[in-house]
Amino acid sequence: MKIEIRDVPPRAAWALEQAGVHPLLARLFAARGVTSRDELDDGLARLLPPAGLRGVQEAAVLLADAIAAQQRLCIVADYDCDGATACAVGIRGLRLLGAQHVSYLVPDRVVDGYGLTPPIAERVAAQGADVLITVDNGIASVEGVARARELGLKVLVTDHHLPGSELPSADCIVNPNQPGCDFESKSIAGVGVMFYVLMALRAELRQRGAFDQATQPKLDALLPLVALGTVADVVRLDANNRRLVAQGLKRIRAGQLPVGLSALFSVAARASQKATTFDFGFALGPRINAAGRLADMTLGIELLLTDDAARADELARTLDGINRERREIEGGMREQAMQIAEGLFDVEDEPPSAIAVFDPDFHEGVVGIVAARLKDRLHRPTFVFAASSAPGREHELKGSGRSIPGFHLRDALDLVAKRHPGVLSKFGGHAMAAGCTIAEEHFDTFEQALQQVAAEWLDAATLTRRLETDGPLPPEYRRPDMVDTLHREVWGQGFAPPVFSEEVEVISQRLVGEKHLALKLRHQGQPVDGIWFGHTEPLPARAQLAFRLEADEWQGVRRVRLLVEGVAG
User: Fold this and answer.
1) How far apart are CA 449 and CA 303, in angstroms?
2) How far is CA 236 from the centre of its chain?
3) pLDDT single digits (tens) 96-129
4) Distance CA 105, CA 123 (A)
5) Which of 114, 338, 360, 406 has a Cα at 20 to 30 A from 199?
6) HSE of 355 in the Cβ direction (CA atoms, 13 Å)?
């Protein structure tokens, strides 16, 4: 691993410090491209205006007309945390704004697959809906939208995924990544897009005289859900997304959160009063995602919709149990997948430029997580496939991929599809994460084609694992209150949490739990505890470590511990 130190523009760091930003935070923010205190203003007034989103005004008119006519609205959601939060935001927001009849339908990962398909459009029509609204999906649902229109439904697509060569024939499309949309935040999550649609709808209803500025419904109650979905979907935290997340966190810490989120914090043994982006990404998000992976995302959506504390507690406990089961399945799959992957190359050789693994016993709900683990371990674009368990589709393999910087996964699938027509029956996604469906007989062809694209696109420098860090940690900042200060900030994809790096002395080391390395270190001449989770290889007497800071409590005393992220070598 090559440990690199981020460049800190001195003028920007100095300007931030002069504006009153803590010196350490000033250095961290400057290294992440922040040049002025103004950019750190997370007030609602600083959010990009909805008017910049192409199609949002037409969507507002369509929804305002539907509400006025008391039409039936049905949201078709996705089965991940972004889709679940987008669905809950849509339902809660539409009801706040006067919609009398709002329902939802969430596809089954196994039976229905992803997105608005023709059979789902038929189910929505059979329920008596007049307007179909997609959240976090729909931009690739050309056939599903066409079928919904044939059945007489009005269709509003709200999505953030990259469109294909053909756009669906919806009445309105709101997606910052559609052609001709100038909205600055291209990385807004699906839940953020739905929130923006609601803001535009509220403005339209205000213009129609439904209420005025003083009496209009307050949509900011939805921001905790927007924040959760944004972080859980691992979208880039640009300035606008950071503001959405910061606003959600403020409300959660102040106790202004839906009872479902409160129940999730409880079962995850996290304190909502000290909520962080880490809680969203590693505690709440995975529990909601587990429902879509192993059971039915209806459980997750119902948790986010309920206002009954007892019901919320019951649903949160159910999701917690499903998440434990997911972890067990994932652990077994990860070991098996690693064995298969390591069988693709000799020990003394480098791994192939891309990895694709399949086993008949793999669970399709967990392939994405396992792909991420393999990608992290081998530093290669990785696809993990499982056999479809949908009736009549047993010959199909569902694959989920994760990538490394410098390799656009969806574009790679597009090239594979062009070079090998018929091999990919479906595909879609982003630069860093994508999914596809292939026939089992085409697995070898897919594997070779993906490796060919990777060999063409990736050079030795890109295939070398790099860890960007913030350099040495001044010892005066190795304090529990400084850890709290860092954790309160909005970190995530594209605005990486602080990782420091420097040479330390390793005083002692021992294995704990058979798979973690507990360390006694000397940092800048002072003793400090450390731990390297998931690693058993002993460290030399002196090592250049990359580490995060954690405040560890023992017998009522809080101390700083270093969480090792990597070692140079």
Assistant:
1) 42
2) 9
3) 999 999 999 999 888 888 899 999 999 999 999 9
4) 9
5) 114
6) 33
**Measured CA angle at 455 (ends 454, 457), to 5 deg:** 60
What pLDDT does residue 408 have? Answer: 95
Whether the predicted pLDDT of 391 surpasses 90 = no
For the chain, what percent of residues have pLDDT higher than 70?
A: 100
Task: Report pLDDT digits (tens) over 298-320.
Answer: 999 999 999 999 999 999 999 99
Alpha carbon distance 337, 331 (integer Å) = 10
Amino acid identity of residue 246, one-letter, is: A
Mean pLDDT in residue range 168-196 = 97
Predicted confidence at residue 229, as pLDDT, reads 98
Which tokens belong to 182? 């100038």
Q: Residue 6, class by beta-carbon neighbours within 10 Å (0-12 exposed, 13-18 middle, 19+ buried)? A: middle
Position 68 scores a pLDDT of 98
Which pairing describes strands 101-105 and 2-5: parallel, antiparallel, or unpaired? unpaired
In whole angstroms, what separates CA 519 from the centre of its chain?
32
User: How much is the average pLDDT of 348-374?
Assistant: 95
Residue spans of beta strands (DSSP E) within 327-440: 355-358, 382-387, 396-402, 424-429, 433-439
Please determine, for residue 481, whether its predicted confidence score (pLDDT) is greater than 80: yes
Task: Write down the mean pLDDT value for the chain.
Answer: 96
Q: What is the pLDDT of residue 479?
A: 96
Q: Position of tokens 């130190």?
A: 5
Query: CA 529, CA 563: separation in Å to the nearest integer?
Result: 9
Instruction: Using alpha carbons, select from 347, 285, 288, 336 the residue that is nearest to residue 312.
Output: 288
| Whole-number Å distance between alpha carbons of 140 and 157 | 10
**Long-range interactions of 268-272: CB distance < 8 A, separation 24+:** 268/320
How far lies 188's CA from each of 8, 185, 239, 253, 523, in Å?
27, 6, 10, 23, 40
Structure tokens at 22: 């803590």
**pLDDT recorded at residue 394:** 85
Beta pairing class for 500-512 and 542-554: antiparallel
| DSSP state letters, 413-458 | HHHHHHHSTTSEEEEEE-SSEEEEEEEGGGHHHHHHHHHHHHHHH-
DSSP state of 7: -
| The pLDDT of residue 103 | 98
Q: Are 472 and 502 in contact (CB under 8 A)?
A: yes
Residue 269's SS3 state is: coil
* Residue 9, C-beta contacts closer than 8 angstroms, at least 6 positions apart: 30, 31, 35
Would you state the structure tokens that stand for residue 548, as one six-digit string? 């995060």
Please state, in angstroms and rounded to a whole number, the distance separating the CA atoms of residues 210 and 17: 46
Q: What is the DSSP letter of 473?
A: P
What are the Cα distances from residue 340, in Å, to 71, 333, 336, 360?
Answer: 53, 10, 6, 12
**pLDDT of the residue at 542:** 96
CA distance 73 to 255: 31
Q: pTM above 0.90?
A: yes
Using DSSP's 3-state secondary structure scheme, residue 403 falls into: coil
Decide: 358 and 377 in contact? Cβ < 8 Å.
no
pLDDT at 113: 83
C-alpha pair distances (Å), 96 with each of 73, 89, 101, 190, 219: 14, 10, 12, 20, 8
